[in-house]
Amino acid sequence: MSDPLKLMISSTVYGVEEVLDRAYTLLTAFGYEVIMSHKGTVPVVSTETAFDSCLAAVDKCDLFLGIIGPKYGSGKIGNDLSITHKEMLRAIELKKPRWFLAHDQVVFARRFLMDLGYPTKVEREALELKKGASTLGDLRVIDMYEDATLEKLPIAERQGNWVQKFDRTDDASVFITAQFSRYQELEQHLKEQFENVAQVKAQIRGTE
To answer: Is 106 within 8 Å of 141 (Cβ atoms)?
Structure first.
């Protein structure tokens, strides 16, 4: 694996610009090729929509970092999911090696609504934020958090469900440094995964 590992950062921009800028600086210094719409490094094809280009980037990345902030993001039509939400769901569906950060406001809002008797997405659908609400831009940021923690699965099956809470940029930077400064270790892990997949495919072909 001579090419740099492709690490995609999926996030809304508004409200977490400083976190994104710091993440980009750290990760490029560690040796990753960072794919981030905020920095304009998502490969764009003129025959694709922005949404298609973002999902294609998820498909092609080696590693995925999702940052869940208080704002839900753009790209949605009506009650459709935002581009960021769909990117995260695609990464989970593809079982990409993934990491998630969630802003403290999202975590607190979820716990507060649970205490008020709205513990699930279904119950929260009866609620509506006041126009111009400043704490959260959309209650679906809580859905994003629960998708990342794999709440729909039994606890024993929730592999890859760690979501790290952050409040300040420094908090996010500590997590990013701790997880991604291990470049060679992650590269070796991916190499072993690719070799295992190749072996399984060879075995399947041998039985056909």
So the answer is: yes
Task: Give percent of the chain with pLDDT exceeding 70.
Answer: 91
Q: Is residue 208 part of a domain?
A: no
Number of domains in the chain: 1
How confident is the model over 146-173, as pLDDT tens digits?
A: 999 999 999 999 999 999 999 999 999 9
**pTM to 2 decimal places:** 0.89
Instruction: Report, as an integer, the average pLDDT of 11-16.
Output: 91
- Say how far apart CA 123 and CA 143 lie, in whole Å: 12
Q: Which domain holds residue 60?
A: 6-182
Is residue 120 helix, strand or coil?
A: coil
Which one-letter DSSP state was computed for residue 156? G
Residue 46 DSSP SS3: coil
Average pLDDT score over residue span 86-103: 97
Asked whether 58 and 64 are in contact (CB, 8 A), the reply is yes
In whole angstroms, what is the distance from residue 193 CA to residue 147 CA? 24
Spatial distance between the Cα atoms of 84 and 144, rounded to a whole number of angstroms:
9
What is the Cα–Cα distance from 38 to 147, expressed in whole angstroms? 23
According to the model, what pLDDT value does residue 9 have?
98
Residue 49: is it exposed, middle or buried by C-beta count within 10 angstroms (0-12/13-18/19+)? Answer: exposed
Cβ atoms of residues 6 and 61 within 8 Å: yes
Residue 187 belongs to some domain of the structure: no
Domain CATH for 176:
3.40.50.10140
Residue at 10 is within a domain: yes
Residue 191 forms part of a structural domain: no
